[in-house]
Amino acid sequence: MRRFGYPGLKRSEKAVVLRFLERVSGYTRQQVARLVSRIQEKKAKQLHLAKKAQHWIVEVSPSWFNRFRKLLVRYEKLERSFLALNHLAAGVIALRKVQLKINIT
């Protein structure tokens, strides 16, 4: 779609591109239209991902900590041991969220 500059085309020009894709690919008009809409939705989500992620992390992070059952109900007598467990849980959460690319050859 980038090759044709589809988002910037006029309606009639988009129809020509869709007909061309229909003939070249062998898909029906509905299938081509659905594929094009899926591509556009995917690009729209990628553009707005950063804005949503910051708001979403703030709302969801307490539930991430609640998955650690020892922290859910405070059994620790000392504040420093409870704080240490919170730091450990934060480290585990951060490691789970990091995208690790490991190449094993």
Q: Tell me the Rg in angstroms.
A: 24 Å
Query: What do the pLDDT scores average to?
Result: 82
Low-confidence stretches: none
Annotation field: number of helices: 5
Number of domains: 2
Helix content: over 70%
Structure overview:
The chain has 105 residues and is an all-alpha fold. The protein folds into two domains: 6-47, no CATH class; 49-97, no CATH class. Helix content is 71%, strand content 0%. The protein is elongated, with a radius of gyration of 24 Å.
Question: What would the keywords be for this entry?
Answer:
single chain; 105 residues; mainly alpha; 2 domains; 5 helices; 71% helix
Quick synopsis:
The chain has 105 residues and is mainly α. The protein has helices at residues 11-25, 29-47, 49-66, 69-72, 79-97.
What is this structure's SSE topology?
Blueprint: H1 11-25, H2 29-47, H3 49-66, H4 69-72, H5 79-97
